[in-house]
């Protein structure tokens, strides 16, 4: 599917200027402090995975925004970043929940957008080139250049069907309040978004990719009434005056869950890379507090260890 030259017309975020980028990088906690805090993050590499089964919904968190989503026998891998590090920031603080050789069979890899902490060419390079890739408009050339032969570009609200155990499973690209860029020359070129995976019974698992808080969640909720599980980003939000239009903070993630009408939330996008100014453990600690303030059931906050899974 061909898209326009770029998607600047869909931008709902404010970009940082060079001085603000410097301010952001200077705000990051010292590496020694970050490593000390990261040692308290539960990691269960190569833990037992769910067995795909009829009607089952689930999530496996692999670290940062990388996750396996399980819907009615269909397994998809979202934003796999399983390398020791990514360009532009320090090495990862916690090991990934899986290495590529220990991944299960996946029906497709879903890429929310092209930022280095979501699209990692080293991880992709270890995958079979016949792996089906789903990504936003204008992404196909990037993957074809790396040898992938089955690439599907999607616009917001478009979807692809897969054969589930109980019927068709739809994988839909949905909007997010974010942006795209890998080099100085491709800003906004590829479309960014999140992923909704819906079984034949209408129950869905949602992965938001990266998103600031905003009306986008109401738009998604208007189209999807039975989101059972949502993987929502809760990290990389400080300094707030710089990042509020590109990343949610924990309180906003809980508000997003309420707007979406989703009961169970998996907090992601924290505990792996030092991308911003908040302490490493603050995202999950603040998510717990916001969850409690909202009066939500603590059992519905699916606080997974890296490598851990939970299913319905």
Any overview of this molecule?
This protein is of the alpha/beta class and about 300 residues long. It has a single domain (about 30-310), classed as 4-Layer Sandwich (Metallo-beta-lactamase, Chain A). The chain has eight helices and 13 strands. The chain has helices spanning about 20-25, 30-40, 120-125, 140-145, 215-225, 240-245, 250-260, 280-295, and strands at about 55-65, 65-70, 75-80, 110, 130-135, 150-155, 160-165, 170-175, 195-200, 205, 225-235, 265-270, 310. The strands form two sheets. The chain has a seven-stranded mixed sheet with strand order 6-5-4-3-2-1-13. A six-stranded mixed sheet has the order 7-8-9-10-11-12, with helices on one face. A hairpin with a 2-residue loop joins strand 1 and strand 2 (about 65-70). Helix 7 (about 250-260) packs across helix 8 (about 280-295). The longest helix is centred in the last third of the chain and has 12 residues, at about 280-295. The radius of gyration is 18 Å and the shape is globular. It starts with 17 loop residues before the first helix and ends with a strand. The relative contact order is 0.19.
């Amino acid at each position: 599917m061909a898209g326009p030259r770029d998607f600047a017309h869909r931008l709902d975020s404010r970009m940082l200027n060079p001085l603000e980028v410097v301010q952001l990088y200077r705000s990051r906690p010292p590496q020694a402090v970050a490593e000390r805090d990261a040692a308290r993050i539960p990691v269960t590499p190569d833990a037992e995975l769910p067995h795909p089964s009829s009607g089952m919904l689930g999530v496996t968190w692999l670290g940062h925004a990388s996750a396996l989503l399980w819907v009615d026998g269909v397994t998809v891998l979202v934003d796999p970043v399983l390398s020791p590090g990514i360009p532009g920031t320090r090495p990862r603080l916690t090991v990934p929940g899986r290495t590529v050789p220990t991944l299960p069979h996946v029906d497709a890899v879903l890429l929310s957008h092209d930022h280095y902490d979501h699209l990692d060419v080293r991880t992709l390079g270890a995958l079979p080139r016949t792996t089906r890739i789903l990504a936003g408009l204008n992404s196909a050339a990037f993957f074809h250049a790396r040898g992938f032969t089955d690439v599907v570009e999607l616009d917001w609200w478009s979807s692809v069907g897969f054969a589930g155990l109980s019927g068709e499973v739809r994988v839909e690209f949905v909007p997010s309040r974010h942006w795209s860029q890998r080099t100085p020359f491709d800003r906004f070129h590829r479309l960014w978004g999140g992923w909704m995976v819906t079984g034949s019974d209408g129950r869905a698992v949602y992965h938001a990719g990266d998103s600031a808080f905003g009306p986008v969640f109401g738009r998604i909720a208007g189209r999807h009434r039975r989101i059972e599980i949502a993987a929502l980003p809760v990290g990389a939000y400080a300094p707030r005056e710089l990042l509020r239009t590109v990343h949610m903070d924990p309180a906003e993630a809980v508000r997003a869950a309420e707007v979406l009408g989703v009961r169970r939330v998996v907090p992601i996008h924290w505990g792996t890379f030092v991308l911003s100014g908040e302490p490493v453990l603050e995202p999950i600690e603040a998510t717990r507090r916001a969850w409690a303030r909202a009066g939500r059931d603590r059992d519905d906050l699916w606080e997974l260890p890296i490598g851990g899974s939970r299913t319905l």
